Amino acid sequence: MDDKLMLMIPGPTPVPERVLQAMAKHPIGHRTGEFSEIVAAVDVDLKWLHQTQNDVLVVAASGTGAMEAGIINFFSAGDRVLVCGNGKFGDRWIKLAKAYGLNVEVMQEDWGKPLDPDAIGAILQADTGKTIKGVVFTHSETSSGVLNDLAAINRHVKDHGEALIIVDAVTSLGAISVPVDELELDVVASGSQKGYMIPPGLGFVSVSAKAWAAYDKATLPKFYFDLGTYRKNAAKNLTPFTPPINLYFALQASLQMMRQEGLESIFARHSRLQAATRAGVKALGFGLFAPDSHASPAVTAATPPEGIAAGDISKILSKRFDISIAGGQDHLKGKIIRIGHLGFISDRDVLMTIAALEATLLELGYTGFTPGSGVAAAAKAFQ
């Protein structure tokens, strides 16, 4: 049956009908008072979502573009930065920082293991000359389903005093609390196709006063991603370049929906979805790739039961049930599945996915579970 695709991947995520309808409106001029009113309304709601009074700037880019903006605006060539990686996206920031000629110190953990805040703290404490200008890491590591301890890492950065904390919150913003002002986070980057519940194409960068002070001294080249230009325009409810107007329509609608649900309810829903998904796949004989203590609210990574190929699971779910899940990346390709439960996802979506996963395992000849146990475990977690 056509048009029944169910997206259960870490992104892009499903888009609500109300948001799709908003996108379908005829474009308007981006230099009109009408569009400026949308920019102003979106700015208020973005600050609400980020729990901040800092600037939250919008760029026409993916989350990677937002993160690149978060690097090039606050450093100069040769600056020493500590980049912490425990998955594909942590590795991406290492490559990004090196591409701009930064002096990159890498703190690496195995995929599936959380970053060790104390190890980060030890590196920062040893930096008595205060030469480390920034600490960069991914909050929710999508490739492995690990949630890194933002608050603990942040405490060590604050103790250092000099370094900026730069956070990739692409799959955590809108799924778990990222209290920018409470934690005094300097740069927080995110993307529209995750918790924001709209299609890809917009990136968001929250910038603190401390980061703006670093901006004034930074000399890395920038033009399109010069956040100072975005800041000046945002003060007048404008954008420096032609924006994707219809994505602004979508963003306004999605943020209104999020306001109606409320931050605590959004975070509680994602926590519930995470718990139910993990309980469901575990009952079916899957191994959980990330520890319970550091499980991402956005995605669950799991290793299939022995003798069952991850790729076969994805193929049958797609072909028979029109449910799309993600596989492993890089060296985990073919070894894990990843089920997204981020953004416009409900309890029903998780139950349907677990039920389809049970049917898929049976079709593959796996009998190492009691039929119905996955759905029962997920349902119990919801209770």
UniProtKB/TrEMBL annotation:
Residue ranges of every copy of the Aminotransferase class V domain listed in the record: 10-329
Residues holding substrate: R338
InterPro entries the record matches: Aminotrans_V_dom (IPR000192), Aminotrans_V_PyrdxlP_BS (IPR020578), PyrdxlP-dep_Trfase (IPR015424), PyrdxlP-dep_Trfase_major (IPR015421), PyrdxlP-dep_Trfase_small (IPR015422), SP_NH2Trfase/AEP_transaminase (IPR024169)
Entry annotated with the keyword Transferase: yes
Residue positions, PTM N6-(pyridoxal phosphate)lysine: K194
Pfam family, one: Aminotran_5
Keyword set, alphabetical order: Aminotransferase, Pyridoxal phosphate, Transferase
Cofactors (names): pyridoxal 5'-phosphate
Biological processes, Gene Ontology terms: glycine biosynthetic process, by transamination of glyoxylate
Superkingdom in the source lineage: Bacteria
Gene Ontology molecular-function annotations: alanine-glyoxylate transaminase activity; L-serine-pyruvate transaminase activity
Keyword Transferase: yes
Gene3D superfamilies to which the protein is assigned, alphabetical: Aspartate Aminotransferase, domain 1, Type I PLP-dependent aspartate aminotransferase-like (Major domain)
SUPFAM superfamilies per UniProt: PLP-dependent transferases
Subunit text: Heterodimer of a large and a small subunit.
Role, per record: Soluble hydrogenase catalyzes both production and consumption of hydrogen from suitable artificial electron donors or acceptors. This subunit catalyzes the tritium-exchange activity.
Stated family: Belongs to the class-V pyridoxal-phosphate-dependent aminotransferase family.
Protein name: Tritium exchange subunit
Species of the source: Prochlorothrix hollandica PCC 9006 = CALU 1027
Highest classification ranks of the organism: Bacteria, Bacillati, Cyanobacteriota, Cyanophyceae, Prochlorotrichales
